[in-house]
Amino acid sequence: MLEKYSLDIANASRHFSTRNYAFVFAMDYCSVVIRVSPAELRTREEVMSEFMWVDDLKQFHTTVCQPYASAKNKAVEEFEVGGNKYRATLFRRAEGKILTCEDWNNHYFYNVGVSLGKLHKASADGYAQGFRYRRCHWHEKATFDFNSFRHALTDEILDIMNETKAKIMSIPKTPQTYGMIHGDYWPGNYFSSDDDIWVFDFDDCGYGYYMFDIVTSISQWIQEPKFMPQIKRRDLLYKNGMLDSFKRGYLENYTLPNEAWKDLELFLKLRYMEQLTIMIPAFDDRLREIIGFDMVELDKKIVLAKDDFYEVLDGLAQSFKETIVAKV
Asked: Which of 2, 45, 64, 107 is 20 to 30 A from residue 227's alpha carbon, by CA?
């Protein structure tokens, strides 16, 4: 790291997700993050395309964490440790912090909508201007190759998942509804600083429906059992101001056709299905302790519930509520 970025790894705080390592360096003028990923996760071309898209986005969305070149003026650095190959990229660190559910409110949902609306407008405008990036389409991602998870899923669950995927693939792709998306726009991938939402970790960016980014945040908000557990999850979304606030901020910056919003719940189900395929190889005792429940089993129940998936989330919230009462 010292040779490639003129930064000493000993001075960094270290973080690990299910796939990447992040080394955060706090500096006087601007904190930065070096993201290190196993080379088999993405081709060099894909990482370069991510770098280029985020760099282009920065022109239109000022709170996107822009990439920087290395000390050798390279967008992507490659190296080997113990016979394993890695790729590294350097980004500005987001300002602010991740808000926990104790700080979520309708103003926060509005701000997230503003940020995502700006991102999708920049994506649509770039496409109209002829910008293209070498990133895959959503259905080409390994997490949507549902049949490859047959060893961990029942035939009934697989059939439901493939049917849902087929329904979404049949939805027309238009320049207003489909383009480059973040791909993992959940609350852990953006920081809040006053009214600004700083977006980072574009590792999963690619071509997809804009609605998928929208439901990625919403799925986490209504899933979180600590957030207003006394309120039914469907009411939390539709009657408590969550969707209205988010949608108001989003539509102030990008006009997603009314027809697209009608498929919100279909995309919610798809997001929980992808969450399941992400968790199957990654979920362990460490994550169970952090999250507080078995994410894999929850997602299986959500898939099997079909249109009644809110009831599964209600059950999770209710169990948390009962735990609080028991402790009191």
From this structure: 64
What is the DSSP annotation of 149-178? GGGGS-HHHHHHHHHHHHHHHTS---TTTE
How confident is the model at residue 106, as a pLDDT?
Answer: 98
Q: Using the 8-state DSSP alphabet, how is residue 184 labeled?
A: -
* Residue 85 phi, psi dihedral angles, 5° rounding: -95, 140
Confidence (pLDDT) at 27: 80
Residue 10 pLDDT: 87
pTM equals 0.93
Cα torsion 227, 230, 232, 237: sign:
negative
Domains and CATH numbers, the chain: 7-92 (3.30.200.20), 101-327 (3.90.1200.10)
Residue 320: count other Cβ atoms within 10 Å of its Cβ: 17
- 219 backbone dihedrals φ, ψ, rounded to 5°: -60, -35
| Dihedrals phi, psi of 16, to nearest 5 degrees | -135, 130
Q: What pLDDT sits at residue 322?
A: 65
Give the closest residue to 208 by CA, choosing from 172, 180, 184: 180
The average confidence (pLDDT) of the chain is: 93
Query: 17: which residues sit within 8 A by CB, 6+ positions away?
Result: none
Cα distances (angstroms) measured from residue 170 to each of 145, 167, 209: 17, 5, 12
Nearby residues of 309 by Cβ (< 8 Å), 6 or more positions away:
268, 269, 272, 302, 303
Supply angle C-alpha 166, 206, 165, rounded to 5: 10
Given CA atoms 310, 311, 316, 318 in this order, what sign does their dihedral have? positive
Task: Enter the tokens of residue 74.
Answer: 């390279």
pLDDT in tens, 270-311: 999 999 999 999 888 888 888 888 999 999 999 999 999 999
Instruction: Scan for tokens 């440790």, then name that residue.
Output: 81
Angle subtended at Cα 222 by Cα 116 and Cα 19, rounded to the nearest 5 degrees: 65
Residues of the chain under the 70 pLDDT cut: 1-2, 322-328
